[in-house]
Amino acid sequence: MPDATAPLDLLLLPTWLVPVEPAGVVLHDHALGIRDGRIALLAPRDIALRHAAREVRELPGMLLAPSLVNAHGHAAMTLFRGLADDLPLMTWLEKHIWPAEARWVNEDFVRDGTELAIAEQLKGGIGCFSDMYFHPEIASDPIHQSGIRAQLCIPVLDFPTPGARDAGEALRKGVALFDDLRHHPRIRVAFGPHAPYSVSDETLESVRILAEELDAAIHMHVHETSHEIARAIERDGVRPLTRLARRGLLGPRFQAVHVTQLDDEDLALLVESNSSVIHCPESNLKLASGFCPVERLWLAGVNVAIGTDGAASNNDLDLLGEIRTAALLAKGVAGSATALDAHRALRMATLNGARALGLDAETGSLEPGKSADLVAFDLSGLAQQPIYDPVSQLIYASGRDCVRHLWVGGRQLLEDGRLTRLDEERLKDKAREWGRRIGAADNAH
Ligand SMILES: CSC[C@H]1O[C@@H](n2cnc3c(O)ncnc32)[C@H](O)[C@@H]1O
Ligand SMILES: [Zn+2]
């Protein structure tokens, strides 16, 4: 039982505090106290200052918010950043990315690429991310060491992949990883069947049974393009979401990534099953995949989160930039300037992300009892003045260079823009070395 009278470990005094829950609130002259890695106090500044605290820090000109949740990505693909640009999804995937993965992806690649992705994400204000890539058992190590929070998906495809000869082996290894990490305080293992077109009914059934038994989430690329729907109708006679619903995959633990194609029946299936949608606007734009109807989903009551996707289709892991794109795009798609306002856009990248990953009891908002997962954005720059609504300024007028400090579980992982536990120069050297090897082989063709 935590001792509520014990001194706080840290008392933060920002200019603005945005708890995200309740929605739309901006607190002025408030403070947040941390004890044992959790939010222990949220109170007006003068009241908070009466509490004993081991350290008190003023954060002038800064907005304190829950750290961001990047709900979809392929972390180690940072090492393929810029390898195959300006191509449609299936050409990009089948002709470039899958051959490159077959050639280059091994344990070292995953370790180095994941570490690079973690560093980039921490510097961009992300305290929690979802990873869906090969050798998740290797990715778990940099996640553990760095202090970031993550959902780690077991990649499942019906063909040989780096790390698994077939789906059966991927699932066996995945269950072992689930067991190993069962008690990890910051890593949650989920199932990651790649997409409806790459996973058979038999494999889907195994995923369904295991996910149910282990109470694990299912994270899947779904309805990414109109081509995917057309191919599925030809093959199965129904749209992919209908097939997944009939096979019992949908539910509150189901995370449908992309969903650029949505008819009335698809929407009803998502609403009834209480599934989440993870919107990846920049990847969808770059691969010309389509537009996720965020406002329609939101108004129907679907939990919509946001992700960057991998750095090979984005090409960065900049969630703040992604939120801005999402907020602008939603207006264009809905034909309404009120669609996805700045406050809702921030909620999508925090609490909705946490909820999609089943982590909303732990992170995603600034509420007493939750883990102290926080980010301080510096809004004192020239291009951010004057400030009427700091959330508007954050979403529409700020870049990730305004991220100053970040804590996960009360541990400071970014201080004044610098990583506290990772060596940036070493990471850059390693990435350049991979780039030289991959680039030289690519040019030889
Ligand atoms: C088992 S997941 C890893 C697998 O997914 C590939 N991938 C990356 N981005 C996308 C995307 O937007 N749609 C479909 N597949 C994608 C990645 O290259 C890996 O092969
Ligand atoms: Zn993806």
Question: TL;DR of this structure?
Answer:
With 445 residues, the chain is α/β, with parallel strands linked by helices. The protein is built from 16 helices and 17 strands. It has 2 domains: 8-66 and 374-408, Urease, subunit C, domain 1, CATH 2.30.40.10; 68-357, TIM Barrel, CATH 3.20.20.
Index terms:
about 450 residues; alpha/beta; TIM Barrel; 2 domains; four-stranded parallel sheet; binds ligand LTUXU72L
Overview of this protein structure:
By secondary structure, the protein is α/β, with parallel strands linked by helices. 39% of the residues lie in helices and 21% in strands. The chain folds into 2 domains: 8-66 and 374-408, Urease, subunit C, domain 1 (Roll); 68-357, Alpha-Beta Barrel (TIM Barrel). It has helices at residues 45-48, 89-104, 107-123, 136-146, 167-181, 201-214, 226-236, 240-246, 264-273, 281-286, 294-300, 319-334, 342-348, 351-356, 390-397, 424-443; strands at 10-17, 27-28, 30-35, 38-44, 56-66, 68-70, 126-132, 149-156, 187-193, 218-222, 254-258, 276-279, 303-306, 374-378, 403-408, 411-415, 418-419. It is globular. The model has no long low-confidence stretch (mean pLDDT 97). It binds ligand LTUXU72L and zinc ion (ZN). Residues 74, 93, 97-98, 101, 132-133, 155, 157, 192, 194-195, 221, 224, 283, 309-310, 313 line the site of the ligand CSC[C@H]1O[C@@H](n2cnc3c(O)ncnc32)[C@H](O)[C@@H]1O.
What share of residues is helical? 25-40%
Distinct bound molecules? ligand LTUXU72L, zinc ion
Gross CATH architecture of the largest domain? Alpha-Beta Barrel
What Rg do the Cα atoms give?
21 Å
CATH level-1 class of the largest domain: Alpha Beta
| Largest sheet, strands/sense/barrel | 9 strands, mixed
Question: Could you please say which CATH topology of the largest domain applies here?
Answer: TIM Barrel
Q: Given the structure, what is the number of helices?
A: 16
Principal-axes geometry comes out as globular
The total number of structural domains is 2
Enumerate the spans where pLDDT stays under 50 for 5 or more consecutive residues: none
Distance between the termini: 63 Å
**Overall SS class:** alpha/beta
Give the percentage of residues in beta strands. 15-25%
| CATH superfamily placement of the largest domain | Metal-dependent hydrolases
Total beta-strand segments? 17
Average pLDDT reading: 97
